[in-house]
Design a protein that fits this description.
Blueprint (H helix, E strand, L loop, with lengths): L3 H8 L8 E5 L8 H13 L5 E5 L12 E6 L2 E9 L1 H11 L3 E4 L4 H13 L2 E6 L3 H8 L8 H14 L3 E4 L2 H10 L4 E3 L6 H5 L11 E5 L8 H10 L4 E5 L5 H7 L5 E4 L4 H9 L3 E4 L8 H8 L3 E4 L9 H4 L3 E2 L6 H9 L3 H34 L3
Parallel strand pairs: 1-2, 1-5, 5-6, 6-7, 7-8, 9-10, 9-12, 10-11, 12-13, 13-14
Antiparallel strand pairs: 3-4
Helix pairs in contact: 5-6, 9-14, 12-15
């Protein structure tokens, strides 16, 4: 076990190539936005550092290297909270002997990273991806459960104050983190899976014949608006891919000839679904970043997002997406996109493609710089 004082001296001259990183996330890799983000990040960092290892729950039905138990997620029975064996997880973390720990989520895995950082002298980065209080208010708006929102907001704030650096995906979250007392806030981009970069992307769409939603079928994602749009645009084929509390609504809508509801798919199939569509939809009421929209840009698709999507706050990406007006319905926005001239539609897709690829490369450089800096104790 590393002595913290010795570790501090050793870290001062640490180079990125010698860096050892442990990433702790309560999200199953590839299961949601956070799980996808860190799965892609670890893949991108692996050739650039000495070691980077992701510690996360296994999916239901999979055998994980960490024993534990799945508990149902309140408000969403399609997901679960995983309680790992603290002793087993701690032992595996010590095998890495990390210079820096990334606590990606403020639950069991993230909190286990706190004492480990203190004991080993490792730097601690806290990932701030979601305001759980806002989601709780959406799922539990009435009764005693209303207290969950303020409590989760307080819990987020406590976690943010404990990190050496808080990493955010947009400035709105950065402001929340600073208000909560975070000591250092760093704005980070989003990495891309290597297959999205190395596999040639299809040509930009010339018109809108198909539309795709890819993600959690949940109230905050604007699913009701998509289903209403499908009724009003019978000539467009709508495909909803994913799982969540609105699964039954999607299955019921699939009785329409122009609606297809596909269960959650593994990461290897995601690119295929995106490549087959003309328009990627993400009309979320609020969205920290928007991984599905970003992946649509990476595959040179037309992408329609809501004003609440954090992706539009990145200038190079905003040039490639089509943003809904604040009072516009999903159906009205799709009608507007469908009327765009062919050249304008393709121009947006090309601009998004170039911007997204540039962000991916810059993001890995940024992550490496921040992790090295935190590991050195600056």
């Amino acid at each position: 076990m590393t002595n913290p004082q010795m570790a501090t001296t050793r870290r001062a001259a640490l180079s990125p190539k010698r860096l050892r990183v442990a990433v702790l996330s309560d999200a199953v890799p590839g299961r949601n936005g956070v799980g996808t983000y860190y799965d892609d990040l670890v893949e991108g960092l692996r050739p650039r550092v000495d070691e980077v290892r992701l510690f996360a729950p296994p999916a239901r039905g999979e055998s994980g290297t960490t024993s534990g138990v799945h508990l149902p997620m309140p408000g969403d029975p399609t997901q679960s909270l995983f309680l790992p064996s603290p002793r087993g997880l701690w032992r595996r973390l010590l095998e890495v002997d990390p210079h820096v720990i990334v606590a990606a989520t403020p639950w069991i895995y993230g909190w286990i990273g706190l004492p480990l950082a203190r004991e080993t002298g490792a730097g601690l980065c806290v990932g701030f991806h979601t305001q759980f209080g806002r989601i709780a208010e959406l799922y539990w708006p009435t009764g005693l459960c209303r207290a969950a929102g303020p409590f989760l907001g307080w819990w987020d704030g406590l976690f943010l104050r404990l990190g050496d650096a808080v990493l955010v995906l947009n400035e709105e979250l950065g402001e929340v983190a600073r208000a909560a007392g975070a000591r250092r806030v760093e704005l980070m981009g989003t990495p891309a899976p290597s297959a999205f970069l190395t596999t040639p992307a299809p040509s930009p769409p010339t018109r809108i014949r198909t539309a795709l939603f890819l993600g959690r079928l949940a109230p905050e994602k604007g699913i009701e608006g998509i289903l209403a749009a499908a009724q009003e645009h019978p000539s467009i084929h709508f495909r909803l891919v994913g799982d969540g509390p609105l699964r039954s609504e999607a299955d019921q809508a699939a009785h329409q000839t122009n609606v297809e509801a596909v269960p959650w798919v593994d990461r290897g199939q995601v690119m295929q679904f995106i490549d087959e569509t003309d328009l990627v939809l993400l009309p979320s009421h609020f969205e920290t970043f928007g991984s599905a929209a970003y992946e649509g840009l990476l595959r040179r698709r037309a992408v329609l997002v809501s004003p609440g999507c954090g992706l539009i706050r990145w200038p190079r990406l905003s040039e490639g997406v089509i943003t809904m007006d604040p009072e516009e319905t999903v159906s009205q926005a799709i009608a507007r996109v469908a009327q765009m001239p062919e050249g304008a539609l393709q121009g947006r897709a090309r601009a998004g493609y170039e911007g997204a690829r540039a962000m991916s490369e810059a993001t890995l450089d940024r992550w490496l710089a921040v992790l090295t800096d935190v590991a050195r104790g600056r």
